[in-house]
Amino acid sequence: MNNSEILFLYDAKMANPNGDPDEENRPRMDYEREINLVSDLRLKRYIRDYLENKGERIFVTKLEDKSVKPEKIIDKLKVDLNKNKLEKEDILNALIDVRLFGATMPIEGNTRTFTGPVQFNWGYSLNKVELVEAAITSHFSTDEKNNQGAMGRDYRVKYSFIAFSGVISGNRANHTLLKEEDIKKLDAAIIKAIPQLATRSKVGQYPRLYLRVEYNDSETILGDMRSFIKLDEKIDNPRDISEVALDISNLKEHLVKNIERIKNIYYYVDHQMKLIDGEEKEIVEIFKAFDLIELR
């Protein structure tokens, strides 16, 4: 399998992209830069949940919303695995998230560790982000003396345009038996998972741009594509996708310089996402020098 690198952008409007349990579930922030942060584990959770909903067998999951021992997960999955002698091929053929992301499987007396070929850096917002804080009241009393319900705090971002970077290692893919069809399922999950798995705090998040640059070999890595893009804010402190555009002119130049190393570019662009290369253009015009494959 060849290497790929991923650029994934989505926005959040009056939502909490990734609450920090150490900060009363406030959105994760780099307060010095006023940048919203989202962990790679949050993105992987979206992907796992989407794949599980599609009928795929997932190892890193919960049973009835409770954390359990790995042995019980394997029993629940109803896969033909001998817990006393876990064979590598059996594990990998059964579990797509282990093929993608790897896992440590602390089965008593037979621990297995796999390093996944698909990895993401932490996501961060391309714009400065303001937080909203509000009081919320439960309709259910906490005890007989409290008839008015429990009080709490609700934290949201006003608007955050979030960028993720990822890599798929062709060499590591060979060790986890990753398949080309797994990569196609990963593409679909990244594009579709966030809006489909919305909860109360996650409503208002939508994928805006996805690029997966597939190289001609399992050695090429060109680097974090976020370094080559810039959010063009039409007004100060944007609050909606209609108030921003994405300048990808430097990214195009970067990829054109390395065109001989690139096999395909897989892409998804939301119809509301405006792209700039000197002026506003369609992605097929910007990347016309490449073999483009649209994802839907």
TrEMBL record:
UniProt xrefs under Pfam families: Cas_Cas7 (PF05107)
InterPro entries: Cas7_Csh2/Csh2, CRISPR-assoc_prot_Cas7/Csh2
First and last residue of the signal peptide: none
One biological process term in Gene Ontology: maintenance of CRISPR repeat elements
Protein name: CRISPR-associated protein, Csh2 family
Species annotation: Paramaledivibacter caminithermalis (strain DSM 15212 / CIP 107654 / DViRD3) (Clostridium caminithermale)
